[in-house]
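Field reference: sequence -> structure
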Amino acid sequence: MYSWKVRIVLAGTLAAAGCLNFGASAADNSLQAVFTKMDQAAPKFKGLTADIKYVSHEAVIDEDDRNSGTITVRMPKPHDLHILIDFKSPAKSVEISGTTVRMFLPNANEIQVYNVGKGHKSEFEQFARLPFGSTSKELQESYTVALGGPETIDGKATTRIDLTPKSHDMAMQFPKIELWISDDLGISLQQKLYQQGKNYSVATYSNVQLKSNLPEAAVKLNAPGAKTTYVSR
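Structure field:
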């Protein structure tokens, strides 16, 4: 469903869902606590800036592709998500607006444009919003969740939750997703996407700063004079 280039974007833009049996056990109570934090954070989330580290593991050759940079997220209203990721080496910038992905490759001075939502609009939007501003109700519509437990990410206290997509198409691409939800912020500080063939990718956020009034320009590519290529899906 998604090309490898789009998966680079999705790895930096990955929360939880599932069937809860309230009060059934301590584990269920802990999981509900995570959902409560996310539901408290969701209506207040308008945007953020952060540093991002990205690792893509290719199992066949047992090799990691690493990159780092910054991510800016702007969501002025629900379901209106805009993301800009600037990677350092190799240099590339990725803009997500709705279901349109624009990737700037500075070495080629080219912007590649993908419409990744064709036929999967609601699914893509939900997937892209996983770590940012999703409510537990929205998440439970698309994923089954299991509690992973407390872990520390970049010195910050988090709780890991494990997701299994309910969509057959999504499960074929990403049979499992792990998210580390900040105990303080109620949003994800790390996501791990498991892919077919034991491949996986991990995106980790640090220096997270919540922003309520980011301008539209903060999530737009700045590449004057670049050639634009429309890539069919």
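Note: The radius of gyration is 17 Å.
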